[in-house]
Design a protein that fits this description.
The chain contains 8 helices and 6 strands, in the order E-H-E-E-E-H-E-H-H-E-H-H-H-H. By secondary structure, the protein is of the alpha/beta class. It has one domain: 3-Layer(aba) Sandwich (Pyruvate-ferredoxin Oxidoreductase, domain 3), CATH 3.40.920. A 6-stranded mixed sheet has the order 2-3-1-4-5-6, sandwiched between helices. The two termini are 20 Å apart.
């Protein structure tokens, strides 16, 4: 498939596999013969801080950073992190949001800091784009055999929905090459479950 440029922003918190997911997507895009550029930010990742992965691929990709309002896809591994990604979205952006929250320590330490309700987050996201898909990636990952496979669930959902212009064969190869050997079976099942869920959600985008 000839693509001039495609921008995918991945966001979450430390420990959710955001960078690994970005690397897998980049490897799949390379296997599909695209030019690829990536970048990442993860200052306090090990302390549960925000982590962002930037991926751009296609025939006309000059740099790694996604311009504001320029994301084709935003994949958020934590719901409140999707709010942080709003500046990169536009009316045509498709957002895939894992619904399982990870409450920051600051919320417990300071009663003046309030974690937003799911309804508030949903309302704010849909002010920017109506193409917001919520996924219980944790539940599906547990079904696959490990909560750690939630990032692969999200990759499968994006592919199954038809929003990600990469081949299933090469994305699956990139996943299998990018996860530990002992976790191959779990991640293969997670990928298949994610694709099935994405196919269910396809009509919403």
């Amino acid at each position: 498939m000839e693509i001039n440029h495609f921008n995918c922003l991945s966001i979450g918190v430390g420990g959710q596999g955001v960078i690994r997911a970005t690397q897998i997507l980049a490897d799949a895009a390379l296997l599909d013969k695209h030019s690829v550029r990536t970048a990442e930010t993860h200052g306090m990742a090990q302390r549960g801080g925000s982590v962002t992965g930037y991926l751009r691929f296609g025939s006309e990709v000059m740099g790694p950073l996604i311009p504001k309002g320029g994301a084709n896809i935003i994949m958020s591994f934590e719901p409140s992190e999707a709010i942080r990604a709003i500046p990169y979205a536009n009316a045509d952006t498709i957002m895939f949001v894992n619904i399982k929250p990870i409450i920051p320590l600051s919320v417990y330490q300071n009663k003046k800091i309030v974690y937003p309700s799911f309804e508030e987050m949903q309302t704010n996201l849909k002010k920017v784009t109506q193409k917001v898909l919520f996924i219980d990636a944790a539940e599906l990952a547990i079904k696959a055999g490990s909560i750690k496979a939630a990032n692969v669930i999200m990759l499968g959902v994006m592919l199954g929905s038809g929003a990600l212009p990469l081949s299933r064969e090469n994305l699956e190869k990139a996943i299998m090459d990018g996860v530990p050997a002992k976790a191959l079976d779990i991640n293969k099942k997670a990928f298949d479950l994610g694709i099935a869920k994405g196919e269910e959600l396809k009509e919403k985008i």
